[in-house]
Each structure stands twice: as structure tokens, then as C-alpha cells.
């Protein structure tokens, strides 16, 4: 069912089904990698909630969950573009740096759609990418936002730092 919903690019519906049935949100990407990568803007607009985007980002893992958590889905359908014909399974290189790639795509997309509205999701991406070591990038981004939107500076800095403190070791932030 999720595959069919996802193929129709009904990302919010697929997201809700995954949440309801406690299925990895990575499926939204891993079921059709090219489709997701080419439609990140549509994905963000359909999810449209900072909290839900943060759930998606925080759930990301580098493994292709179609191969690791849900291997029976491989038998049902798999995009031929990502199949190694010798082994009849997704190439391992597709899983490498998946989290970083998605986070970078999301940061760019969130900035272009509504930088102020989605800044906490962008911070989540910074905190998640590079194996959780881009906290400096998150703080620099937060500072640039507070300079860009001085009328929101206090609230943005406060909320942003609190958000990062929930995601990372506080000692790493300071």
C-alpha cells in the first residue's frame, strides 16, 4: 500500500500510513530514490509541518530500509535503475551518505520555500548530517538567520538553541 501511495507522490498520505503503522519513514525515500530526490519541494509542501519534517529527518538512516528492514519488498518491486544485474539487489553505493544527501536537499528546499517557517527543520538537518557532527554549521546558520531577520532575532536564537540542545549533546554545542 505504501509503495502505491508513494508512487503517486502522495507523500503526506504515505507519511501518515507509516506513522500509524510504525513503519520506518525512510521508505518515503528508499522506495523510489530518484522520484524523491526530484520532488523534494513537493514532499516538503505536502508534509508542511515542522514537527513531521523533523520526525522524518530524525528517523533517517544511511541504510536502504527496503533492503535491510523490509527485504520482502525487494521481491515485489524494485527500481531497475538501482539494481546491480549481477546480484539482483540495490547497489551498496546507493546507501552511502543517504542521510547527508537528503539533509542537503532539504536545507536548500526549506530555504527556498519558507526559511523563517522551516528554520527548525533546517537546524534538524544540520544536526543530523555528517553523522551528527555539523553542529557548528547549525549555529552559523542560526546566527545568519538572526542577522537576516533582526525582528525575530531573540525568538529565533532562543528557540533554535533549545531545539539543538534537544538533538545533540549540550557540551558539543558549547
Task: Itemize the secondary structure elements and their pairings.
Blueprint lengths: L1 H6 L3 H10 L6 H4 L2 H6 L1 H8 L2 H10 L5 H4 L3 H5 L6 E2 L4 E2 L7 H17 L4 H14 L2 H14 L4 H15 L2 H4 L1
Helix pairs in contact: 5-9, 6-10, 9-10, 10-11, 10-12, 11-12
Structure, explained:
The longest helix is centred in the middle third of the chain and has 17 residues, at 98-114. The chain has 13 helices and 2 strands. β1 (83-84) and β2 form a beta hairpin. It is globular and about 50 Å long. A two-stranded antiparallel ribbon has the order 1-2. The model is unreliable at 78-95 (pLDDT under 50). The protein is mainly alpha-helical.
Number of strands: 2
Low-pLDDT stretches: 78-95
> Which sheet architecture does the biggest sheet show?
2 strands, antiparallel
- Please state the average pLDDT score: 87
How much of the sequence lies in strands comes to under 5%
Using only C-alpha atoms, the radius of gyration works out to: 17 Å
Compute the number of helices: 13
Q: Tell me the series of helices and strands, N- to C-terminal.
A: HHHHHHHHEEHHHHH
Give the overall shape. Answer: globular
Q: What is the SS-derived class? A: mainly alpha
Amino acid at each position: 500500500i505504501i509503495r502505491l501511495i508513494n508512487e503517486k507522490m502522495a507523500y503526506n498520505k504515505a507519511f501518515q500510513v507509516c506513522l500509524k503503522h510504525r513503519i520506518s519513514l525512510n521508505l518515503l525515500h528508499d522506495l523510489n530514490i530518484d522520484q524523491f530526490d526530484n520532488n523534494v519541494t513537493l514532499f516538503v509542501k505536502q508534509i508542511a509541518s515542522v514537527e513531521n519534517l523533523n520526525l522524518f529527518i530524525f528517523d533517517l538512516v544511511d541504510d536502504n530500509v527496503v533492503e535491510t528492514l523490509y527485504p520482502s519488498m525487494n521481491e515485489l518491486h524494485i527500481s531497475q535503475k538501482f539494481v546491480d544485474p549481477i546480484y539482483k539487489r540495490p547497489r551498496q553505493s546507493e546507501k552511502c551518505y543517504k542521510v547527508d544527501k537528503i539533509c542537503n536537499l532539504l536545507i536548500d528546499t526549506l530555504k527556498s520555500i519558507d526559511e523563517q517557517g522551516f528554520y527548525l527543520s533546517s537546524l534538524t538537518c544540520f544536526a543530523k548530517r555528517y553523522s551528527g557532527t555539523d553542529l557548528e554549521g547549525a549555529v552559523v546558520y542560526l546566527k545568519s538567520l538572526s542577522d537576516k531577520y533582526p525582528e525575530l532575532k531573540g525568538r529565533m536564537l532562543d528557540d533554535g538553541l533549545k531545539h539543538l540542545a534537544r538533538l545533540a549533546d549540550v557540551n558539543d554545542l558549547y
